[in-house]
């Protein structure tokens, strides 16, 4: 009974209309009930029963409907879509091409639905072999004339094979469209994950690093009780552990094939440096008057975060010009609070590359330097980024 269910009233209405038209076509092909009651009962009535069952199961099982309508197929070779003269090949002139009956459109419809909805090829191949066998039997029963073979082959091709192939093509196109839509949705999810990962790294990672710097400063301050020094050390370790867990989460969210977002954080470089200095980081800023590059905030934030994590207590120098941003820190005064190998510098390198600039990062004078060269507005900069270390 599950195969007979319809999802909504519209499907019921369509199928009822299809059944009425099919019954009318079947009645037009056979004896009328009032003119020949016996012929109607032996010929038309069984056909009506087959047509009724075909409509009932055809929506979910179009191949079954196609087999049920096999007796109503194009097996009468006296009428056709066209009549051609084949005297150059056959002794007959009136060879029917693509025989058509009143029920042929319904057979064509279910052949199309078979290709459109049936996923496996083997059941359709078996059914078409059966249909071909019926056509061969009809030709042999009619004498086996070569003209009949031409009519039968064109009937099989036009009524069964071509509609099935059109349905199969339609199903493949819809499948490709669905796969393209799913791929676009997956890419959108990956971009959103990359955006979340970037925001987490830029904001939470930086703030956690500054918390660890404050805790390290308290730990080294004079005049604190032993319990207070211990509490500051535990706070520093907790911040380091939180930074490490954040890095792991970012690794799960970030997609390497997706370029990081290019929108800068809404905070100027001076405010960022001031906030880092308030946290206890010894830092100086050399901000040359003039336009500030859009990526300056991201570069400075990455450099300060790296310095806070990998060189706690080190003096940091920040230099910002219209075409160059440099963040340099001296040697670390205490042990690092995070392990190397993060994704922050890799993401920044990609952003710099997309902006047409170059990135250099590496040890300098016992410390570490992050330098980014960017093209001025309106200039081309064909170089690509480099660097060795990731935060």
TrEMBL record:
Keyword Transmembrane helix: yes
An MF annotation (GO) of this entry: kinase activity
EC id: 2.7.13.3
InterPro entries to which the protein is assigned, alphabetical: HATPase_C_sf (IPR036890), Sensor_HK_TwoCompSys (IPR050482), Sig_transdc_His_kin_sub3_dim/P (IPR011712)
Domain of life according to the entry: Bacteria
Limits of the Signal transduction histidine kinase subgroup 3 dimerisation and phosphoacceptor domain: 192-256
Record keyword tRNA-binding present: no
Keywords: ATP-binding, Kinase, Membrane, Nucleotide-binding, Phosphoprotein, Transferase, Transmembrane, Transmembrane helix, Two-component regulatory system
Cited Pfam families: HisKA_3
Transmembrane segments: 12-32, 96-113, 120-140, 146-169
Catalysis performed (reactions): ATP + protein L-histidine = ADP + protein N-phospho-L-histidine
Protein name in the entry: histidine kinase
